[in-house]
Design a protein that fits this description.
By secondary structure, the protein is an alpha+beta fold. The chain is built from 57 helices and 42 strands. The N and C termini lie far apart (142 Å).
Length: 1888
């Protein structure tokens, strides 16, 4: 029995002591005045009576009631029921009234009217109880108030006395009627089961207020220990909500701060760091805004606010959705019927609110039963007597439920509520309740009902009935009878204030009742205790049938077979199965199978193995353990723990090594929780055995058969329950004996575990003090060097141990000390929890150091003997082949090459052998990072695996944590990523110390970013490493290097400082005069300076000697060779000829004074003088002013390039042509020069001077000019703006331009007509073809500009243009360099991912490829290039002026020339294009490639690679138009970053000259040094192999290519994806030669020779080499046959050209289609010069090419005729071998090179048969350098010496040969031989 109420308190308003506006509560009276012994009076009760504060109010409020909850220091809850009413305040009235004033008050006040300023003070009646009967409290306090207000004739003292003395039973379902003596009657029902919470309607109300999702969120938050705050204006609602939430948590009890109603004065409690559930009035919501980690539930608004920093883990997944569905069925039963066409009639069976409350609780009860199903199987009973000690095995529970990763359940199990649940409900013998039965018996039913909602609902209702019955055991009770005050009684004037009660009377009533109770016998309710049912074993919460490693029965069979083979000694069979076993052991079932099988081979706790068996067993154990987490949730480590101390091998007599010394390096051994769970599990086993033994001893013989098995099946909890039941019946001695036995069991297990822990924590080589890294905060350890040591690994590793842990440089004692401390902490914890006495614990502390020390001594002998074992046979390190000059920087470090994100090679779902992981070594050389090794999988065979990339290509290096499939555990990993699309993910072997790994990283970094470019491999390759670097120029070899550099820098400074003084006003030339070459007056008008220009004179007469040297060197550069080919200008001495050319070659930049990043010679308009160029250059970024780089042979339009304009330059370009003001600044002058310059460019184009003398480029007719005023705005053609500005023309309709945006995706549907066509005036044509191709060409309209300027959109904002200007703007949005860099990084990760994707699928790869936006950038580049090609083809010139002019500009102009000019699609032409546009025009290769330390921060930016990718895309679409192969592009892509050659080093010609790179090859012929230039290497290689040649090369007649540019037409370059693990990248040709194929051998029995068939593995073999194309194969066969026959090998090119020519002749006579052979290539249709693609050498001679192009540049027809005329002589040469050449006369002559090239000695051959004059480098040279066709020779006459001619030779020894193309200058050794040559040539001519 318990008291219904402990205290009654009267609290009234009192003034605040500090005189503030608020009052404070004062306790007027409390009953009883003395505290109960078992329940002291709670302090601070007056704060809770008025939670919002004690305040007076101006009107009488109705009485209020609520129940507050106070929690005392013992966590006991006190329920304070508060009824508050208001009484008037008299200003003079004292706070405490005397008796007489109480009596006389009413009579005096009755007739007096209420004063207007009357105030009312609150007064509260408080009932304090430990029971929660809120309705009874409401009725009781209401009765006391009614007696007072209505003035009933009942003494208040007797009512209160009766209330305080009323006792009721606690539980048991009894019913008690009470009366307080005022004619009232109340029935109190106690719940059936005390442990089930009573909720009334609070849960249902909570759901109604907040909804399902919000309540579920609060439920999870409370369980995972978050802070929850309820807000409401109603205190009773707050109390109900908190009570409802706690009811939902059953069977867990909330053990943190619980304050349903928090007073305003205590709001700072909300800042507490501990979890809480608190209710606060909405009035204080503002104070809660600053709480950052509190979940706020607003009951009135129905919202739950979760702060950003708070994560509430949801329920595990099938349960979350199931619970949600069932809750909605309970709360909204009509939801299921809402969609029915014929809903059933609505029955009024909707449950009452109380019933709905119980249904909702039933849902959560089911939820807990499902969550905690089988929890009793994870209870460890550690002690039974004197009190049960129970521990819960969390890891096993989570593992078996399959929820180890579930955030929610892990947090719940770690929380305090669950700890209380275990201690309360883990007890095996106790009263049970509804939850125990549910979790034991109904789990199977719940699982079966999951898919049947109606069954679930039925079960919920059954549970709800039981819960309802628990609260209301007697439903049909008599009604309460309690008096209530009349309606609005609070508004009536109270007869009097609440009186002061007589303490004596109340105390007397209480004392009387207490005396009566003491006399009565104690009413003890007999608790019905039983054994708590265990329930079914655990099952996973969600069956994961589609698990990644679903272990089939076949896999388990493999594991069993392998173990059987090991123990039967069939080692070869075991070795075959081992890889499959190691793979299978990833699955849980296989690991369990392994432990079971190994247990079978242990007899009497010992199993001695031989070395090989030991090795196999340890490897399998390590494989099992390496996937164990620190929790060991699947019990694998627990099952292996007894085995590692059982398996052993004999090292020598008396020395045994156990398996534990080889499996120490796993995280699980250093986890205290693992050891605790293991310890408690073993203790439980022994305690169970302790009580089972006597039972078995006393079993009668006849019952033996049945009883024994039953005994065996009894669980430890059953045994404990039985013992607890018997405990009270035992005598004291027996009890003491049992307690001692249990304690000694625990104690002995503690000693046993101290030994076990020392086994697994002490390293084998403890003398080195090496422990693995400390675990966080625990100082526990992992073992050391030997955790992997299997048989003889200990020996091979013994010398490589290093101190690598938190215990560096530690002595043995420190290792021992660390282990002792760890074990002591463990022993302290488990012994204290298990109730071991302090004496025993002290004894243990003494023993632990001795145990550790003994074990260390044992290990020393084991370690000593293990070192004597033969070391394990590790694979021999394979040394890679090196290039000439390549040297090792770091010799091989043993590593494992691990699989990365690429599927190929790993033998996974992609198929093929598992080449990776591979075991080998990493080498660092001066040039490359190289891995060579062999696959670890023995079934793959002895294949060599190689991966390498140039050090210079490294883009990212990072450490990675290695989870590897290799059977040995590895230290740390390193991932190296390169911009050649290679990835090395490797883990260092255990013998590689951390210092070696660190040294590798430092050396790699040093080589990747040298301080100076001269430290790169291209410079030091082959050189002897000296401690100090020699000076730059060792010796002055003439003025070419040192003097040249000095002069350059000196003159640059001089020129930059010169000021121009005289300026003239600029008058634009008249329309008429533009067609003629300008006369002298005009030239003066263009020229700004009056001083004569030395550069227009001949080099011989005007240049200083050093300048002359510079000029002759510059003339030999690729630029000039190309200018000459294009006929773009001249430097010759005849001024008359120069005047006829529209453009000239200006040497103004020969000293690199105007622009450092431009070449020395530039093409500028003839009419612009050199001194004007300096001022033009100032308007452009980096001084890169517009220069011509190419001219169309057909339309004669020119392509110009420049840097972007400066801001003022843009303004100058489009300002109106007013006369400049007198005070014109230098900038204005520059802008003026710039305008003149562009005008000069326009004037230099002959197409734009028509017959009438009017320029048509603006398209204005005289009618336009007369009749219509032109639009004043600039004609700015914006590609991204659909509204193009149109000049007022009749025929120019508005239209939408295409879009070239920077967003990374091409704009959709509104593109319409192709931009190029539109800008070229083709917008009347039809729409473009699909795929982004331009429309068919049609007539060109005349309205187009002479010059289009393509610039960045940002430059041309707000620009206005004079309508009379003849250039037009095309602003485009281009991507920036940083976007290219970011895009490339993403492309790298997409093509070469670092780790396998979570869900590998083609879609994920395509998504990442799209995210990189690489193809979008390629699309933009191609699109802009095709636009420029269209414009040039239509006759308009184009100036590309983007960014600084060296990145995107270079890409665009190079692509335009490649698409427009077939010459650049040959090997020689492409080389010329790259040398001219990329090298000479200053693309910053060093900066973009981050070649030195200075560029490290900027990172790698693949501008050139992007260009090559564009060329690759065009190559794919036009495979017959390119002489070079795709391999050539890949080769350049690889080597432009490799730093093997010097070609792509440095940022400009100026820097190359400064280093002496450009002209170093001149002078004497070099010996067979390694190639410094990539072009030289290509030439050499081309003579040996056709690898760079495209056999499909057969160019069409139409010269211009227009590729599709849409992203859908672009392909990902296979350069990014392919690799061959057999030999590494194939781009270093010397290294990529595979072993020669063995010859076919006859069988000894005379049978057929064995086949040479071989398996070609993707990603291993290089397919082009293993399976060459038919032509390469035939050429190889020819070479082999020549060698066999002993004939000198003929060059492949000669053979190929012969075959091709024969094919051509075959197809000619009948003009039928080409024969069906590989070599058709549409040859008969070729009418152009064969010289372009039928060269004698691999690249041919510049001379013959330039002859061809000069000839064919006039028009296509003349070119065709020329080709036909020359074809006979050219083709004739194809049928003669080098040996049988007809040489009529031969000898040495000096020949002057074309176009200011120097004189060179040549071996000249006069061939009468072929009617040719051929010249070679030397006598035995078979490679012809040039041919002069005698049919073209006009005359032979004596010549005069020119600049650079041989010295000491008579002038008469010079003679010239004049052909229709040019004049050749020759010089013989002396006069007679010269005369003889002239006669021979003359006779040849006369014979012809």
């Amino acid at each position: 029995m318990a008291r219904l109420a402990d205290y009654f308190v009267l609290v009234a308003f009192g003034p605040h002591p500090r005189g503030s506006g608020e009052g404070q509560g004062q306790i007027l009276q409390r009953f009883p005045e003395k505290d109960w012994e078992d329940n002291p009076f709670p302090q601070g009760i007056e704060l809770f009576c008025q939670p919002s504060g004690w305040q007076l109010c101006a009107e009488r409020n109705p009485p209020t009631f609520f129940v507050a909850v106070l929690t005392d220091i013992n966590s006991e809850r006190h329920y304070c029921a508060c009824l508050t009413f208001w009484e008037p305040v008299e200003p003079t009235q004292d706070a405490v009234c005397t008796e007489d004033s109480v009596e006389s008050g009413p009579a005096a006040e009755e007739g007096r009217p209420t004063a207007t300023g009357q105030l009312f003070a609150p007064k509260t009646l408080v009932l304090v109880s430990r029971l929660d009967h809120s309705e009874v409290f409401r009725n009781s306090l209401g009765l006391i108030y009614t007696v007072h207000v209505e003035g009933l004739s009942v003494s208040l003292e007797s009512v209160i006395g009766n209330l305080l003395t009323c006792t009721i039973p606690l539980a048991g379902g009894s019913q008690r009627t009470i009366s307080l003596g005022a004619g009232d009657r109340q029935v109190i029902q106690t719940p059936l089961t005390d442990s089930l919470p009573v909720s009334c309607c609070s849960v249902a109300l909570l759901f109604r207020q907040l909804g399902i999702t919000n309540v579920l969120a609060l439920f999870c938050a409370a369980l995972t220990e978050h802070k929850i705050l309820f807000l409401s204006r109603s205190y009773q609602r707050l109390a109900d909500a908190c009570r409802g939430l706690l009811a939902l948590l059953f069977p867990l009890r909330y053990s943190f701060t619980y304050v349903p109603i928090l007073p305003a004065q205590l709001l700072e409690v909300l800042s507490t760091p501990t979890p809480f559930i608190i209710g606060v009035n909405t009035a204080f919501q503002a104070e809660t805004q600053e709480l950052l980690d509190v979940i706020i539930a607003d009951l009135d608004g129905g919202t739950v606010t979760v702060p950003e920093c708070v994560h509430i883990p949801p329920l595990p997944e099938p349960l979350q959705s199931q619970t949600h569905i069932v809750l909605s069925m309970v709360l909204d039963p009509e939801l299921e019927l809402a969609d029915l066409a014929f809903p059933p009639p609505i029955t009024s069976s909707s449950s009452s609110l109380k019933m709905q409350d119980k249904e909702l609780r039933a849902v959560f009860l089911r939820l807990f039963a499902q969550l905690l199903q089988g929890y009793r199987w994870c209870l460890h009973i550690v002690r039974i007597h004197p009190e049960p000690v129970i521990r819960f095995h969390k890891a096993a529970f989570l593992g078996q439920r399959g929820l180890a990763e579930d955030d929610f359940l892990v947090k719940v199990l770690e929380g305090m509520a669950f700890a209380g649940f275990v201690s309360e409900r883990g007890v095996p013998y106790r009263p049970t309740d509804l939850f125990d039965e549910l979790v034991a018996h109904d789990v199977a039913r719940m699982r079966a009902d999951e898919s049947h909602p109606h069954r679930v609902l039925r079960h919920v209702r059954e549970l709800a009935e039981q819960l309802y019955k628990n609260e209301n055991p007697y439903p049909a009770v008599t009604m309460h009878k309690v008096q209530r005050p009349a309606e609005a009684s609070h508004l009536r004037r109270a007869p009097r204030p609440f009186p002061r009660l007589d303490e004596g009377t109340v105390q007397w009533i209480v004392d009387q009742a207490t005396a009566t109770l003491q006399g009565a016998p104690p009413a003890v309710r007999a608790e019905k205790r039983t054994t708590v049912p265990l329930g079914p074993p655990m099952t996973a919460i969600l069956e994961r049938s589609s698990a990644l490693h679903a272990n089939s029965a076949r896999r388990l069979e493999v594991v069993r077979n392998c173990i059987a083979y090991v123990f039967e000694g069939k080692m070869l069979e075991a070795k075959k199965l081992l890889p499959a076993v190691l793979r299978a052991l990833k699955g849980r079932a296989a690991r369990g199978c392994l432990t079971q099988e190994l247990h079978l081979h242990v007899q009497q706790n010992r199993a001695v193995l031989d070395h090989q068996q030991f090795d196999f067993v340890v490897r399998m154990m390590n494989c099992c353990l390496q996937d164990c987490t620190s929790m060991d949730e699947h019990g694998v480590a627990a099952a292996l723990l007894p085995l590692v101390t059982a398996f052993c091998r004999k090292l020598s007599p008396g020395v045994t090594q156990f398996a534990y010394s080889c499996v120490q390096e796993h995280v699980v051994w250093s986890t205290p929780q693992f050891w605790e769970a293991m310890f408690y599990g073993d203790v439980q086993t022994h305690i169970r055995a302790l009580y089972l033994e006597p039972a078995e001893d006393h079993t009668l013989s006849q019952e033996m058969g049945e009883a024994a098995p039953q005994e065996e099946e009894r669980s430890a909890l059953d045994v404990a329950s039985e013992q607890r039941r018997l405990w009270p019946t035992l005598d004291r001695e027996k009890q003491q004996e049992l307690v001692q036995k249990e304690e000694s069991t625990v104690f002995s297990q503690a000693i046993h575990y101290a030994s076990r822990m020392s086994y697994l924590l002490l390293p084998l080589d403890s003398s080195r003090g090496r422990l693995l890294r400390e675990r966080a905060g625990l100082g526990e350890l992992e073992s050391a060097s030997n955790s992997l040591v299997t048989n003889s690994m200990a020996g091979s590793m013994a010398g490589s141990c290093d101190t690598e842990s938190g215990f560096e440089d530690a002595e043995t004692s420190d290792v021992a000390g660390a282990v002792v401390r760890f074990i002591n902490r463990f022993v302290d914890k488990v012994c204290t929890e298990s109730g071991v006495t302090s004496d025993h614990l002290k004894g243990l502390h003494v023993m632990v150091p001795d145990i550790v020390q003994m074990h260390i001594e044992t290990l020393e002998a084991v370690h000593r003997e293990s070192k004597r074992l033969p070391p394990i046979q590790k694979p021999k390190l394979l040394r890679p082949r090196l290039l000439p000059g390549e040297e090792y920087v770091l010799d091989g470090l043993r590593v494992y090459l691990l699989p990365d994100g690429r599927e190929a090679g790993a033998g996974g779902s992609g198929g093929g052998p598992a080449l990776l992981p591979a075991e080998g070594a990493i080498f660092l050389t001066t040039y490359r990072v190289i891995f060579t090794g062999m696959p670890t999988d023995p079934l793959v065979g002895e294949q060599v695996v190689a991966r390498s990339f140039p050090v210079a290509a490294l883009t990212k290096e990072k450490r990675v944590s290695v989870q590897t499939h290799v059977d040995q555990f590895l230290q740390d990993g390193l991932q190296l990523r390169s911009c050649t699309f290679q990835l090395l993910k490797m883990a260092f072997d255990e013998e590689v110390g951390s210092d070696s790994a660190e040294l590798f990283r430092k050396q790699l970094h040093k080589l990747r970013y040298p301080s100076d470019v001269r430290d790169t491999f291209a410079f030091i390759g082959g050189a002897v490493h000296a401690p100090s670097r020699p000076a730059r120029a060792t010796k002055d070899k003439g003025p070419s290097l040192k003097t040249l550099s000095r002069n350059l820098v000196k003159n640059a400074k001089k020129t930059m400082g010169r000021q121009y003084v005289t300026r003239k006003k600029y008058n634009p030339p008249s329309w008429e005069s533009r067609s003629q070459p300008p006369d002298d007056d005009q030239e003066d008008a263009i020229s700004v300076s009056d001083e004569p220009e030395p550069s227009t004179l001949t080099p011989t007469s005007a240049l200083k000697p050093s300048d002359r040297m510079t000029m002759s060197s510059l003339v030999e550069r690729a630029c000039c060779r190309d200018y000459q080919r294009l006929g773009l200008g001249t430097l010759s001495s005849s001024l008359s000829r120069a005047k006829s050319e529209p453009f000239r070659i200006s040497p103004v930049n020969r000293m690199y004074a105007i622009c450092r990043s431009y070449p020395g010679l530039l093409i500028v308009p003839q009419s612009v003088q050199d001194n004007a160029l300096q001022r033009v250059s100032r308007c452009y970024r980096q001084n890169r002013f517009p220069v011509v780089c190419w001219r169309s042979g057909r339309s004669r339009a020119v392509l110009l390039r420049s840097g972007g304009l400066h801001g003022k330059g843009v303004a100058g370009l489009f300002k109106t042509q007013n006369a400049p003001s007198p005070g014109q600044s230098q900038t204005d002058s520059g802008s003026l020069e710039q305008e003149k310059y562009l005008q000069a460019v326009v004037s230099s184009m002959p197409r734009y001077a028509d017959a009438s003398g009017r320029n048509t480029l603006s398209g204005f007719s005289s009618a336009h000019l007369g009749g219509h005023a032109p639009s004043p705005r600039a004609r700015v053609t914006t590609l991204s703006n659909p509204m193009a500005a149109s000049v007022s023309r009749r025929t120019a309709p508005r239209g939408k331009w295409g879009s070239i945006r920077a967003s990374g995706r091409s704009s959709g549907g509104g593109v319409g007509v192709d931009v190029g066509s539109r800008l070229a005036g083709r917008d009347m044509l039809g729409p473009p073809q699909p795929n982004g191709a331009p429309p068919d060409p049609g007539f060109l309209r005349p309205q187009r500009a002479a010059l289009y300027i393509i610039g960045d959109k940002a430059q041309f904002k707000g620009v206005r243009q004079d309508p009379l200007q003849q250039w037009e703007l095309v602003p485009i949005e281009v991507f920036e360099v940083r976007q290219v860099k970011a895009s490339f990084k993403k492309l790298l990760k997409a093509c070469v991912p670092g780790c396998a994707a979570a869900e590998p699928s083609p879609a994920s790869y395509l998504r990442s490829l799209e995210d990189s936006e690489w193809l979008s950038q390629i699309h933009k580049l191609l699109r802009v290039s095709v636009l420029v090609v269209e414009l040039l083809d239509s006759g308009s010139s184009v100036l590309v002026s983007l960014e600084d002019g060296w990145d995107i500009t270079t890409q665009v102009v190079s692509l335009v020339q490649l698409l427009s000019d077939p010459f650049y699609r040959t090997l020689e032409g492409f080389r010329l294009l790259v040398e001219k546009e990329w090298l000479s025009f200053g693309h910053r290769f060093s900066h973009r490639g981050a070649h030195t330390l200075a560029g490290q921060s900027s990172g790698f930016t693949p501008i050139f690679l992007q260009f090559l990718d564009c060329v690759h895309q065009v190559h794919l679409q036009f495979p017959m138009e390119f002489e070079f192969s795709q391999f050539y592009l890949k080769f350049l892509s690889y080597h432009h970053v490799s730093r093997r050659f010097r070609t792509f080093l440095l940022d400009s010609d100026y820097e190359r000259i400064e280093l002496g790179l450009l002209y170093e090859e001149k002078g004497e012929r070099r010996g067979p040094q390694p190639c410094r230039s990539v072009w030289e290497y290509v030439d050499r290689l081309s003579k040996k192999t056709p690898v760079f040649y495209n056999y499909m090369y057969a160019p069409e007649d139409s010269e211009v290519l227009r590729p599709y540019s849409n992203v859908s037409n672009l392909k990902v370059w296979d350069f990014y994806m392919e690799e061959s693990l057999a030999e590494g990248p194939p781009y270093d040709w010397e290294l990529a030669q595979g072993p020669p194929e063995p010859p076919e051998e006859e069988r000894p029995d005379g049978g057929a020779p064995q086949s040479r068939r071989r398996v070609v593995w993707p990603c291993y073999d290089s397919r082009p080499r293993v399976q060459p194309d038919a032509i390469s194969r035939l050429l190889e066969e020819l070479q082999r046959l020549e060698t066999e026959l002993g004939r000198p090998p003929e060059r492949w090119k000669d053979t190929w050209d012969r075959v091709k020519a024969a094919q051509r002749l075959e197809g000619r006579p009948d003009r039928r289609g080409p024969p069906g052979s590989l070599l058709v290539s549409s040859v008969p249709q070729h009418r152009r010069s064969l010289g372009v693609y039928l060269q004698e050498g691999p690249v041919g001679s510049t001379l013959s090419l330039s002859l061809d192009s000069d000839q064919s540049s006039g028009s296509t027809a003349s070119g065709s005729r020329q080709a036909a005329r020359r074809s006979t002589s050219t083709l004739y040469s194809q049928f003669q071998t080098a040996e049988s050449e007809n040489r009529s006369y031969e000898g040495t002559l000096y020949k002057k090179g074309a176009f200011m090239k120097p004189w060179k000695a040549r071996w000249v051959v006069l061939d009468k048969t072929k009617h040719q004059l051929r010249y070679y480098d030397h006598r035995v040279d078979t490679d012809c350098k040039g041919i002069i066709d005698l049919a073209e020779v006009e005359s032979v006459f004596p010549g005069t010496p020119t600049m650079g001619a041989p010295k000491n030779v008579d002038e008469k020894a010079f003679f010239d040969v004049k052909t229709t193309r040019r004049v050749y200058n020759f010089c013989a050794q002396d006069v007679p031989s010269a005369q003889q040559w002239v006669d021979r040539i003359q006779s040849c001519l006369s014979d012809a």
